[in-house]
Design a protein that fits this description.
alpha+beta; six-stranded mixed β-sheet; 20% helix
Length: 174
């Protein structure tokens, strides 16, 4: 069965909403973008760039997202998306390429750890729409760059930052 344009757009929206929610620190919304029984497979950089750690279910996803609390700011730029129909009508696959910046402070100095990465995704169509059922993150390269200046993360009460992901509200920058 050929995937419809509407399904491709919904999957692209899901991927971009995930990136925006991570960058906006809306980790509760991130968790809701996964199925109840999802599996997130992550690398253990810098030793392992392939997915070697597994997080299962929404509690596991929440635990994995907690690791980002130590990072001052992130920015996920989706640079490529390929979607394919799965073996069943409610199942799809995706290969997403991304450049993810992870900015951290140490005293007065800031550093940008850049991951050039790929997500290999499995999606399920649920009553709530398409959700991520499996995601494997592979890092292709890591760069570390000094940062001259780093903007603090905006407060969570700015317009759009508290909107639930189900509403698909886009973040608003002043």
């Amino acid at each position: 069965m050929k995937m419809s344009v509407a399904d491709r757009l919904a999957l692209a929206d899901l991927v971009h909403v995930y990136a925006a929610a991570v960058d906006d620190r809306r980790f509760g919304d991130v968790v809701e973008l996964f199925t109840d029984t999802a599996e997130l497979r992550l690398p253990d950089p810098p030793q392992h760039l392939e997915p070697v750690r597994r997080f299962n279910g929404r509690d596991g996803i929440r635990s994995a997202m907690a690791a980002l609390a130590d990072v001052t700011r992130t920015e996920h730029a989706i640079v490529g998306e390929v979607y394919a129909e799965g073996t069943e009508a409610n199942y799809a696959l995706g290969r997403i390429t991304c450049v993810a910046h992870h900015w951290s402070r140490s005293g007065e100095e800031a550093t940008d750890v850049v991951w050039h990465l790929r997500y290999d995704d499995e999606y399920l169509l649920t009553r709530s729409g398409w959700r991520i059922h499996g995601r494997a993150l592979t890092i292709n390269a890591i760069e570390t760059r000094p940062v001259r200046r780093l903007r603090e993360h905006p407060p969570r009460n700015r317009p759009g930052s508290d909107a639930p992901s189900g509403g698909r509200a886009a973040p608003v920058d002043p």
